[in-house]
């Protein structure tokens, strides 16, 4: 199954790049994330709870960065499994483009589900994958707007001119 899309993030490309590789940022953004830790050789290992149709599962997996061209492009490979429910593997590419003070994040990839998850049907699995990606980038955008990405500063309020942005108070 192929999947692609894009999101506009209210932060400079350098902050978005750092956030996409930051353990705490990723943990806060991955829907259902229960655990996330750095993995040897680049990438992360972790566990996330998912629901695909009637099937609830905790997938344990690994995402490996297979190529990185800072701050423009990341290529990743992922595997995830639950012995009772199945799992899947996939690969994808994320590109970051500057657009003024914001960053356009485009992604494309392939997902191959297996086991019971794979038997539920491509349409259902693709829908859950899209919903999870949307939730991830919605939360990532919220953190960016609040200045909570590594090295980030809050985005200006919509009615406030960008050149006259006030610094936000940090706790």
Automatic annotation (TrEMBL):
Name assigned to this protein: Carbon monoxide dehydrogenase subunit G
Source organism, top-level taxon: Bacteria
Alphabetized SUPFAM superfamilies for the sequence: Bet v1-like
One Pfam assignment: COXG
Region annotated Disordered, chain positions: 147-171
InterPro entries: CO_DH_gsu, START-like_dom_sf
Signal peptide: none
């Amino acid at each position: 199954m192929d999947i692609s899309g894009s999101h506009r993030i209210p932060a400079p490309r350098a902050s978005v790049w750092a956030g996409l590789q930051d353990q705490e940022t990723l943990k806060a953004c991955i829907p259902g994330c229960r655990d996330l830790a750095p993995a040897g050789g680049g990438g992360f290992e972790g566990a996330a709870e998912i629901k695909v149709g009637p099937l609830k599962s905790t997938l344990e997996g690994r995402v490996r960065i297979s190529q990185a061209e800072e701050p423009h492009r990341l290529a990743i490979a992922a595997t995830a499994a639950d012995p009772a429910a199945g799992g899947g593997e996939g690969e994808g590419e994320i590109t970051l483009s500057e657009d003024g003070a914001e960053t356009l994040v485009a992604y494309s990839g392939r997902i191959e589900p297996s086991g019971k998850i794979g038997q539920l049907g491509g349409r259902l699995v693709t829908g859950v994958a899209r919903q999870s990606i949307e939730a991830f980038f919605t939360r990532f955008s919220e953190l960016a707007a609040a200045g909570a990405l590594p090295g980030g500063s809050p985005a200006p309020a919509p009615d406030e001119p960008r050149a006259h942005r006030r610094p936000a108070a940090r706790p």
